[in-house]
Design goal:
By secondary structure, the protein is an alpha/beta fold. The protein contains 11 helices and 18 strands. It has one domain: 3-Layer(aba) Sandwich (Rossmann fold). One of its GO terms (biological process) is cell wall organization. Its EC number is 3.1.1.-.
Length: 387
């Protein structure tokens, strides 16, 4: 029995903020206001949240030690990034997402599975801190979820797409070849990484904030054992948590969707408050319209690093690319950016169309935008308050 499956690692990474849509006469923007919890329903037929009963026997629990879960469920975004400290697990916050599959000509009738994020390490952890009551079991959760889904029928798929946003985009890249290996050779398997290109870059103070952050994750969670050996065979483990170093080693066809001016990285790793004690970047961090010429020049350098990081990857015919010059983060999980009438476009292609062309091999699907502010189709994110 043939079928098509989309496996979504929807691991949205944000500052615990909900999105309220708004617009200006000459651009599209989304304003981020406050935290919202919403688990409301939507149209469509869904299977409820499914606990994996065999997970405990496989040692697959979340960072609190509780059971892992997955299911064919509505696409909700879990606002939780990576777990770096030994503090008690943070509160999980749900934000409702619109039913995007109904807005895509290519994937509207696919089986969609969302693997719920609960490990804080992009499904790579395999360590514990018994004294603190923390068990990092991300890799085991991944394996338990895959075993369960394959047993439920995913093994019969004739085509499968692994996708993820933000921390889920990182997980998609790290697990892409592993996911491909689950299926027979005649199954079309590909990966879509959205907003997962977290760069090993220097911040405004000259430090490498993201490297320090990822190093803490790898050491605390014992992630090194789960990272692709194609990378760790010649680079250190922390470097292999960065997608830019894993992309060149991926054998599975992959599509990279990213903004050249990723707002999460702008706030957390390019110009974090710790690197900006005088607050010179406070307005620019929250709204790109307030960035001065020197700040924009610095951000153009970040864009250049982004393009350099995917240059070799994009040379392969099997891969796809959509990097637009927007101040945003995660574009595949929102209807207004994925496939709406006014969605962002490159080469007159919406993101959903570009991904569809790539997956079904209808033609070239490599799109790179000109530098900001040339793109009038962007849906920029602006923030109320400095996060």
């Amino acid at each position: 029995m043939a079928s098509s499956w989309v496996l979504a690692l929807v691991l949205a990474l944000s500052a615990g903020a909900s999105l309220a849509r708004g617009s200006e006469p000459w651009w599209n923007e989304t304003q981020v206001y406050a935290t919202t919890a919403n688990s409301g329903g939507g149209n469509g037929v869904f299977v409820g949240l499914t606990l994996i009963q065999s997970a405990a026997a496989k040692g697959a629990g979340n960072s609190s030690g509780s059971s892992s879960c997955s299911g064919i469920v509505p696409l909700f975004n879990l606002v939780l990034g990576w777990k770096l400290t030994r503090l008690p697990p943070p509160q999980r916050v749900w934000i409702r997402s619109k039913q995007l599959a109904r807005q895509s000509r290519d994937f509207y009738n696919w089986n969609r599975v969302k693997v719920r994020y609960c490990d804080g390490g992009s499904f790579t952890g395999d360590g514990s801190d018994a004294a603190a009551g923390l068990y990092f079991r991300g890799q085991r959760i991944w394996q338990a979820a895959m075993d369960d889904l394959m047993a439920q029928g995913m093994r019969y798929a004739n085509q499968a797409l692994l996708s993820g946003c933000s921390a889920g985009g990182v997980s998609t890249i790290l697990h892409c070849d592993e996911f491909h290996g689950l299926f027979p050779s005649n199954t079309r398997v590909k990966c879509l990484a959205d907003a997962g290109m977290f760069l090993d870059t220097v911040d405004v103070s000259g430090r490498r904030e993201m490297r320090s952050f990822f190093n803490g994750i790898v050491r605390l969670q014992g992630s090194g054992r789960s990272l692709p050996r194609s990378c760790t065979s010649h680079m250190d483990k922390t470097s292999c948590f960065f997608p830019q170093n894993v992309l060149p080693t991926i054998r599975t066809p992959t599509f990279v969707l990213n903004t050249a001016y990723d707002v999460w990285q702008l706030q957390q790793s390019v110009a974090p408050r710790t690197a900006d004690p005088q607050g010179l970047w406070s307005k620019c961090r929250t709204n790109h319209a307030f960035c001065n010429s020197n700040q924009l020049q610095f951000l153009q350098g970040f864009r250049n690093q982004m393009l350099d990081a995917v240059r070799g990857f994009s040379a392969s015919r099997q891969n796809g690319l959509f990097i637009n010059s927007c101040f945003a983060h995660c574009q595949s999980e929102r209807q207004d950016t994925w496939y709406a009438n006014n969605s962002p476009r490159l080469g007159n292609k919406k993101i959903a169309d570009a991904v569809g062309d790539w997956f079904f091999e209808r033609g070239n699907a490599k799109y790179t935008d000109c530098p900001y502010p040339c793109d009038g189709t962007c849906h920029h994110l602006v923030f109320r308050g400095d996060h």
